[in-house]
Amino acid sequence: MSDAQERFRNIRLQIEYDTYDPKGPSVVVLPCLRKRSKIIEIVAAQDIVFARAQSGVCVAFSRETNQRICFLNVCPDEVIKSLFYNKNNDSLISVSVYASDNYSSLKCRSTRIEYIRRGQPDAGFALFESESLKWPGFVEFDDVNGKVLTYSAQDSIYKVFDLKNYTMLYSISDKNVQEIKTSPGIMLLIFSKESSHVPLKILSIEDGTVLKSFNHLLYRNKVDFIEQFNEKLLIKQENENLQILDVWTFELTEISRSEFMTPSAFIFLYENQLFLTFRNRTVAVWNFRGELVTSFEDHLLWHPDCNTNSIYVTSDQDLIISYCKADSDDPLSEGNAGSINVSNILTGKCLAKIRANNGFPMEKECSDADDCSGSTSNSMKRKCVSKIRSTVAEALEDITALFYDEERNEIYTGNRHGLVHVWSN
Fold first, then answer.
1. How distant, in Å, are the alpha carbons of 281, 307, 324 from that of 298?
2. C-alpha dihedral (145, 148, 153, 156), degrees to nearest 10
3. Largest Cα–Cα distance of the chain, in whole Å?
4. Cα 242 from Cα 259, distance rounded (Å)
5. Shortest CA distance to 187 belongs to which of 144, 235, 245?
6. Higher model confidence: residue 269 or residue 365?
7. Is the per-residue pLDDT at 123 higher than 70?
């Protein structure tokens, strides 16, 4: 815990990147891509920060030079919908739709990080070209299992691909499959609800072998959610208790509906055998015995709808970094400025907080190459702040995306103005 406090103690606003270019990428023809737009996703890989705006523009910035490397939109009518860093082969996968296709089909492209670093985003190659990913078709990337799941709505076929080399492993063809959930090593198939039960199947994620088939009895109420976590099945129906079912032993645990309200989002902590729930701006940690493990102090989320793009859980699953409501006693946080809170997941303690009165920009000595204003005598060392137009309070306003680079120990935030801010010590 003290190590984490030390790591985040002196984090300051370092630099600002702007995804907006009035000229836009030279290839762009779509008016929506030429407008300033809020950041909704940030991904970092090695020394590159990728920021995707709601408009569909995606930009790569270098942390070494702090310059924009390139736009990832390589076609005149490309709208990028999501990003995924594939660490198996050190590449970035972008999922896009195109105006020429009436934005109806998802297209995937894999581009090696080294090509992007050289400013060659068009050096990638198309993925899953054989698949018809028209809405409501989809593609999902499963980092834990190293798999990709696609769904072709046209013929109701799910396919599982290897994330290392994109070879197809197997397919699932059944019109009654309503949803698929993945968990380490296994996959849960949820079928169409029948009069008094829902049919379920558990498959090996490696080869699609059926490991177990069973029915789960239901009340007549609407099903709020069915979630799979290893051997545990979480089932919640409207106005009913949460049921936690062990699918191998059929042991059933219930949590009273007054204790466990239906959350707006989950994050499963596979390392700790726990799960996070998000509801009404609050975060809680539960175990599979149905016990509340942690309530977080001083961790009221900014976004009421639980925008998980502004929440980051570390790979050791010991810390959660979130964009939160600022303290009422912070005189600089009036208006729309929140704070970036770092909390311990197991204790709920707030370990560090970046807020308007402690995240002042880092000063650095100017070199001759720096563009610094103001005259100074030779006997004085000139100082300037890296090119940042926003104040710290402005950088903490309306944060719409957040990412923590664990290797560099840097936090990246994006806001509604299309600006990306780097926080580092």
1. 11, 18, 9
2. -50
3. 85
4. 9
5. 144
6. 269
7. yes
The 3 state secondary structure assigned to the chain is CHHHHHHHHCCEEEEEEECCCCCCCCCCCCHHHHCCCCEEEEEEECCEEEEEECCCCEEEEECCCCCEEEECCCCCCEEEEEEEEECCCCEEEEEEEEHHHCCCECEEEEEEHHHHHCCCHHHCEEECCCCCCECCCEEEEECCCCEEEEEECCCCEEEEEECCCCCEEEEEECCCEEEEEEECCEEEEEECCCCCEEEEEEEECCCCCEEEEEEEECCCCCEEEEEEECCEEEEEECCCCEEEEECCCCCEEEECCCCCCCCCEEEEECCCCEEEEEECCEEEEEECCCCEEEECCCCCECCCCCCHHHEEECCCCCEEEEEECCCCCCHHHCCCECEEEEEECCCCCEEEEECCCCCCCCEEECCCCCCCCCCCCCCCCCEEECCCCCCHHHHCECEEEEEEECCCCEEEEEECCCEEEEEEC
Angle at 392 between CA 21 and CA 81, to 5 degrees: 40
Contact 419, 390 (CB under 8 A): yes
The tokens describing 31, both together, are 């008016």
pLDDT for the residue 401: 95
Query: Which pTM does this prediction carry?
Result: 0.88
